[in-house]
């Protein structure tokens, strides 16, 4: 099977989407022009388990321009843009993705990627990487039955032996991979692209901050001004969501945070901080951004006001207890695309956006192209770095010089010049003898 998409006839519309993304991703396009000349990825098979969006399309086109054979599968069942998937498949990218996949179809897609025996994996949430490790370590998991339906009789030893390394795009995935390393079970090197400054300082804060609210507004069309917004988690994503809530005119922005340093930062940034038990009683809109499980549980939901809106912008759909909500609700109905109304015992209603999945990609289009320009430039450079350097199994940060190169290119494409240090200043900073 070369590709499987929802509707190949959508390809022309997908090409227009890709054109628009390329117009707004100048850093990645500059890297593509170099890749076209140097072909640093010739002989490599890249399996990308990423959100299948127009921005991802620009990345995989760049990898293909560098000489790689590319396989693209989704990292979320609800985030695929079907027109983009169709366009990429038409161009020769091996795509197995469509919006609204079942769990079985989702893991079929991961099996499809594995069947190509990739030499490099690009991941967002670590599902592809974790699946390879489950196969290697003989873990019993129902999802592997679905993987086997498309991976067939994959030779796991051959698969792992051929892997030069992988990358990880998001905080949740990096947490999983560091746990894998700590357990002594990581079998190939991973570059934590998420830890690059030009990724998390901009993508997580400005990208997710804007696109989360884009998803909430498309799903509900509510006025944010005057509302009480509760943000669970004050990492870089939570910071961005809280900042944009304030900018949209929220009457109160409450942060729920378990880490005392982050909680203190939220206070100093001008936000209220309290436990979810208390925030549940006063919030109008709740957004989770922690990477943890059941941050909003049934006890919290029963305390909420009639009409409370719940959304998740963490990677996996575990932060809100959706299963518990399904179990106790006396009625459920879909009243708008991506918005479900649940009636609780006693008649109170709460509204869940996008089934508790990643709201910015399930109910909107994900991050703006301008910010993904930096994130995916890091991905492209990380793939090249893995080809040029043989690394031992570990979780690595992309070298700082590559991170700074992405920032330099971004400033250049924005027409912004920065200061340059003099030789005297460089010597001063490198000397221990100079002082007062």
Automatic annotation (TrEMBL):
It catalyses: S-adenosyl-L-homocysteine + H2O = L-homocysteine + adenosine. Its cofactor is NAD(+). Pathway: Amino-acid biosynthesis; L-homocysteine biosynthesis; L-homocysteine from S-adenosyl-L-homocysteine: step 1/1. SMART domains: AdoHcyase (SM00996), AdoHcyase_NAD (SM00997). SUPFAM superfamilies: Formate/glycerate dehydrogenase catalytic domain-like, NAD(P)-binding Rossmann-fold domains. NAD(+) binds at residues 170-172, 204, 233-240, 257, 292, 360, 367. It is found in: Cytoplasm. Binds 1 NAD(+) per subunit. Residues 204-366 form the S-adenosyl-L-homocysteine hydrolase NAD binding domain. Substrate binds at residues 53, 124, 169, 199, 203. GO terms for cellular component: cytosol. Transmembrane segments: none annotated. GO terms for molecular function: adenosylhomocysteinase activity. Keywords: Cytoplasm, Hydrolase, NAD, One-carbon metabolism. Pfam families: AdoHcyase, AdoHcyase_NAD. Its EC number is 3.13.2.1. NCBIfam families: ahcY, PRK05476.2-3. Belongs to the adenosylhomocysteinase family. May play a key role in the regulation of the intracellular concentration of adenosylhomocysteine. PANTHER family: ADENOSYLHOMOCYSTEINASE. This is Adenosylhomocysteinase. It comes from Pyrobaculum calidifontis (strain DSM 21063 / JCM 11548 / VA1).
